[in-house]
Amino acid sequence: MTRLPSPEWTLSTGLTDYAAALADMEARAAAIHAGEAGERIWLLEHPPLYTAGTSADPAELLDPRFPVYDAGRGGRYTYHGPGQRVGYVQLDLTQRGRDVRAYVAALEGWVIDALALLGVEARRADGRIGIWTDAPDGREAKIGAIGVRVKRWVTLHGFSLNVSPDMTHFGGIVPCGIAEFPVTSLTDLGKAASFADVDAALASALPAFLDKLRPSD
Fold this sequence. Notes:
With about 220 residues, this protein is α+β, with helices and mostly antiparallel strands. Helices cover about 25% and strands about 30% of the residues. The chain has a single domain (about 10-210), classed as 2-Layer Sandwich (BirA Bifunctional Protein, domain 2).
């Protein structure tokens, strides 16, 4: 197998404006497609907001107390805000296998592997995209969301992981269209992980994620 260069690892401090992030992603995707820029993994936080995916149902926007953005990705309504690690993953699938399903599965696996390093047993759930774990009350709960878009075989968007957000903010939407299961966070699970801890776990689990995407020669 050919080993591709590792993506640029970009970490933004403070709160990143969502519209500015979308514009930045679009520009980077075009540059990657044109061969003018390398792949990138961009870790950031947003101010409180809701995003609407291409399958969003207006009935699931219960209380638009924060700005609502058309994200352009797949999926339904998602919350982003302080205390949540957002990862925008921009890879060239012409180099890493033109298989969107395999990419989404690998992306889920990356976050699951990182959570394992933080002492959280997480998993996939059949028919429900995202990252799931057991809440303290024993109920299955969502700790991470996945939302992707692929444009000319370059990936946009990625994942969000609830570290220590204000969980009441999720009450303005039906998160990802799933009303029957709660959301949770590392804080709710009793895990005192900092953003630096989360980023380090993601970095440690990154090589295995990328290896799953390398096409055979």
